[in-house]
Design brief:
Blueprint (H helix, E strand, L loop, with lengths): L6 E7 L6 E7 L6 E4 L5 E3 L12 E2 L6 E2 L9 H10 L15 H18 L3 H17 L3 H20 L10 H14 L3 H13 L7 H23 L1
Protein name: DUF2225 domain-containing protein
Length: 232
């Protein structure tokens, strides 16, 4: 009798050098979700059965690292830049097996660097930074978590100011909320309130009442904390 494990090998092809390789993924039926943090970080019942660990594919031949959010096409000039900045310095290694949190963090950093060179959308880059912060949260490295939250915040704000959410699965309401929440987590309260007010101001137009409710919850938390600080 064949025993089905949570892990399986998925065939993929490098977007850059076209090398075919296998990378580990997790079968969805084994993923047990218990909830989310206020910045949408998923909370899984088993630390090792965490799809975030396997979100990034790393080409063992050239080092190009990417997720499903990357666009497939790479212009020749950017391929040359990827080769110069990554592939020529790449020490062949295989991230296609089971990953530790440290392994996963390395893959996200590689993917973020590749995304910057490839000129991926700001939302894609921001998402890589935020997921890196989540993984650091799981390892209780607060300094690095805060660093990557800061990086993600800047990219999300740039996306809001320039690209917007066109061509992505993220709504403007969710984008505004995540900016507000990441600012709040950095104790940038006045800036956070500005973005929360934008979210709440869209409540009659939004089709995402859950996010509106989350924005109200953050607003109340900030107000209560402010009251407490004044009474001390």
């Amino acid at each position: 009798m064949t025993v089905v494990t949570p892990f399986y090998d998925k065939k993929t092809q490098c977007l850059s050098c076209k090398h075919s390789f296998s990378t580990t993924k997790i079968r969805s039926r084994f993923v047990k979700l218990s909830g989310y943090d206020s910045d949408f970080c998923p909370l899984y019942q088993a630390a090792e059965i965490n799809p975030l660990l396997y979100n990034v594919s790393v080409c063992p031949r050239c080092g190009f690292s990417y997720t499903d959010d990357f666009t497939a096409y790479i212009p020749p000039v950017l391929k040359s830049e990827l080769k110069e900045k990554i592939s020529l310095h790449w020490q062949p290694q295989d991230y296609g097996k089971l990953r530790s949190y440290e392994d996963a963090i390395n893959t996200y950093k590689l993917a973020a660097y590749c995304a910057l060179i490839k000129k991926e959308k700001k939302l894609t880059i921001a998402g890589l930074y935020l997921r890196t912060a989540w993984l650091y949260r799981k390892t209780d490295d607060q300094e690095q978590e805060r660093r990557f939250i800061n990086l993600a915040t800047h990219e999300y704000i740039d996306a809001y100011m320039t690209d917007g959410t066109s061509g992505s699965l993220m709504s403007e309401t969710k984008l505004l909320y995540i900016i507000a929440e990441l600012l709040r987590r950095q104790n940038k309260i006045e800036e956070s309130v500005i973005y929360l007010s934008k979210v709440i101001g869209k409540q009659h137009l939004s089709t995402e009442p859950k996010i509106i409710d989350m924005a109200r919850e953050r607003w109340y938390e900030i107000r209560e904390e402010y009251k407490e600080s004044k009474s001390m």
